[in-house]
Design brief:
This protein has about 325 residues and is mainly alpha-helical. The protein folds into two domains: about 160 residues, no CATH class; about 110 residues, no CATH class. It has a two-stranded antiparallel ribbon. It has a two-stranded antiparallel sheet with strand order 3-4.
Length: about 325
Amino acid sequence: MNPLLKTYLHAFTHLKRGGTRYGIAPHKPVLVLTLMELVEKGIVIENRFEANTDLVGHFLENWQLLVSTPHQADFTQPFYYLQSDKASGEPFWHLVPRPGCTINAHIKSVNTLAEVLDHGEVRADLFALIQDSVSRTVLQTALLDTYFPDRKAYFLAAKHSGEGYLHDVESYILQEPEAKYKTIRIDTEEEVFVRNGLFKRHIIQLYQSTCAFTGMRLLSMHGHSFVDACHIVPFSVSHDDRIGNGIALCPNMHRAFDRGLLSVDEDYRIIVSPHFTEDDKHDYSLRKLQGSRISGPQSTKYLPQHDKLNWHRKHVFKS
């Protein structure tokens, strides 16, 4: 066997795990399996693991498939404490903060972590092993056999079928009528984080990075969109992050919409509040939008729902 692979097999099967009232904590092996899965799926192609929707969502999915004890699915805990684990006497996981930030302790909020963290990274030799399909399979099998032998078959079958937490969340966000939503919850900050991230991703994709009010489409050469995924009824009010409660707007339209200067009628035409002053002759005058039909998704099933727009006209729009 490759000596390097043997070194990491030993490290992965001897992860430091704290004792709890429910037994030894399963968090670290779930995270390590998740890191490898992101590489396997091509979601991560460089040695940069960001605290984003993909990482947190896959962690929660794997947790539900693997962990049968009452432990809390706290993503932030292993993300920080995995730095204490070593291979050949050296740590194999490291967190890199954003410029001007520090990470000297466990950050319990995933939103705060995402703000201060640039990325996490494994050692270069480990990343090379994870990129190799044969070595990756050996490491994944060792983790499953060591920590989750009773759930291994169930886990592999679920991964093969494509069912599970992420499938259910995607179906929920996209308002699929056959969705069962059996794993959909909003009990924790991490679950809200994943749902909100998928909401933003799908809104921008379905509107093709185009502002629904101005028709402006702008993408950077690095693939960044310059439109916002906006909730029509605020999430704090509705806890609804399905596509029908969303619309894509450029930042200035987003601000005007949230402050009630713009809204949308039942025919999907823009209505403009009279309660503001502006230079009406300017090319970007808001009043020139009056009566224009919004630029929506190509499929009408993803258009904003009428009850959400009616709520906005009633509770936010300044008529």
